[in-house]
């Protein structure tokens, strides 16, 4: 039972991923706002009534955020603040966050504590920068920072388990013991939903049945195709392609932006997600096995019994069956027999949901770095942030 001691005090919960930024308030079931972590700046030269460039008019600079930024990317400069879990463009992160909080969430963030969720293995200097940005630029009054995998596990009501968190640019296997992630047993691979989208785009352009529609092969259209039709093959792509396509016409149909409906075959639907299994030592089953092997023998049973899939990319159907099948070759039979793959229906937002729950607990305030802590510890910021960040 979650004990709520900060009833009159909401906490702003922010899960800043490379693909999407999720923001909302503690105690709520889902983030209020989810937007692609992107902005683009487009300079437009106004046209006259006949559609000719008006050389006398001042050029207009337009800034787009989220999906609009992706859709307008080709007209200007696309800025992606985070890439593969790492801070890539500090200024645009500030702008996207400000837009999400001020314009979309419509909150006076200076008034409320903030819980910032970050990726496992986020470098300390990145956490320091984020703390500095929130205290100095956003003028927040207090801040907690927490590991997304711990919170994803917490969202399922567990404090022990192996979290396989699959995001947009990175995937992590994170063993968690009594609410603490084990850093030396955490493994990552630089593959995620973005690579599946890229694979969808590549196959889309090459498939003879789809070549007539190449003008639609924009990343945002391909992402939508992926999210609606992709599927993980239960054993291998080869085996899947050799069998009859199990999908109905409806399950293979995709509507392009101009309204055309195309039929998408197995090569694309099942082929693109194979990137998660193809990386040798950096494949999904392999990093899970490495995480297990790096933990104490006594603890491994708990881990395989609580193998939690989390993050947006874990929404692809068929993952659980494939992981179970692949792990059969990688772990001893007695462990494999006990394996339980947990797929929560809300796993796309599991870290945010865990954060929302955690920030509602009476103990949450112990994790807050206050403005005063920050000011006092500024000369050695890492000390303050590392001591309190979880
Ligand atoms: N139904 C779905 N099927 C397949 N993929 C999906 C689905 N829904 C979302 N995704 C993918 O999940 C990814 C985003 O997941 P998530 O929000 O967990 O990542 P992130 O936190 O932004 O990224 P990262 O953890 O890499 O920083 C995107 O690539 C998106 O296309």
Automatic annotation (TrEMBL):
Lipoprotein keyword on record: no
Cross-referenced InterPro entries: Actin (IPR004000), ATPase_NBD (IPR043129), Heat_shock_70_CS (IPR018181)
TM region(s), chain numbering: none
Keyword Nucleotide-binding set for record: yes
Gene Ontology molecular function terms on file: ATP binding; hydrolase activity
Keywords carried by this UniProt record: ATP-binding, Hydrolase, Nucleotide-binding
Catalyzed chemical reaction(s): ATP + H2O = ADP + phosphate + H(+)
PANTHER family per the UniProt record, alphabetical: ACTIN (PTHR11937)
Family: Belongs to the actin family.
Protein's name according to its UniProt entry: Actin
Organism: Vitrella brassicaformis (strain CCMP3155)
